[in-house]
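Hey, can you fold this one?
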Amino acid sequence: MFQDIAPHNFNISYRDWKPQNHDYLISCNDNQVLICQNENFHFPTISDIFQYHDSNQLVYLFEIDGHRCFLSLERLKETEKFKYQDIRSLTNRQPNWLCFGSAIAMHLTRWYQNNQFCGRCTHRMLPKENERALHCPKCNSVVYPKINPVLIVAVTNGEKLLLAKNTNTAYKNYGLISGFMEVGETLEDTVKREVKEEVGLTVKNIRYYKSQPWAFSESVLIGFFAEVEGSDEPFLDGNELTEAKWFSREELPAFDSRFSLTWDMIESFRFREI
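Sure. Predicted structure:
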């Protein structure tokens, strides 16, 4: 999946390190990342960029295979060699950690941008030195990176799997039932509510599958399998889904994207791994 970058080693532990010339520099602009445009895709180093820019707005991000990566909090200008490119276009490029690292940087860029000022007293926020957090020196409010829990539910009916199409997203292919967790809910409560809301079905035997960081929506995806209980006739209210249909293992459509938890869950059902 998206986060499976082995044998590369990803270390997100925060360190109060100062940037060096040979460290990687990551700059994000919406869903784009500044990257080398020749056949050997890579991030610029700090020395590559700082001959064109003069900025101290750098924060430590993470390590990849021991290579330290820093984030520029300001949008950098493109050069002849380094251009902004859509992060999702990197999914099939080598090295395979490039897209994952870019997406994590995008997630944290948005968090830093959205928390420049204290939500309690409006004073400018400052980075904490001992952890990845922002604090207000005036009222002592502390803010940590935002991670939204999203549940992905594979509803089964014996040898069949329920697939659906969403009304409100750009993705128009079949997928699984999904939704954000609400305040006060358990994971199991969210599974039951989302399935009931989206397709009008009741489920039982809820089983955890696996999870996936999903920086594109600042989320962690949490996958569950569940069995339909009672009526298996989907009911759509037209607000969230345009279609919901049962597929046998042999009838399941093929999927081009191989880096999402949804794909992994569908393939596990297709090949009887679950």
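Residues 97-114 form the longest helix (18 residues). Let me know if you want another pass with a different chain boundary.
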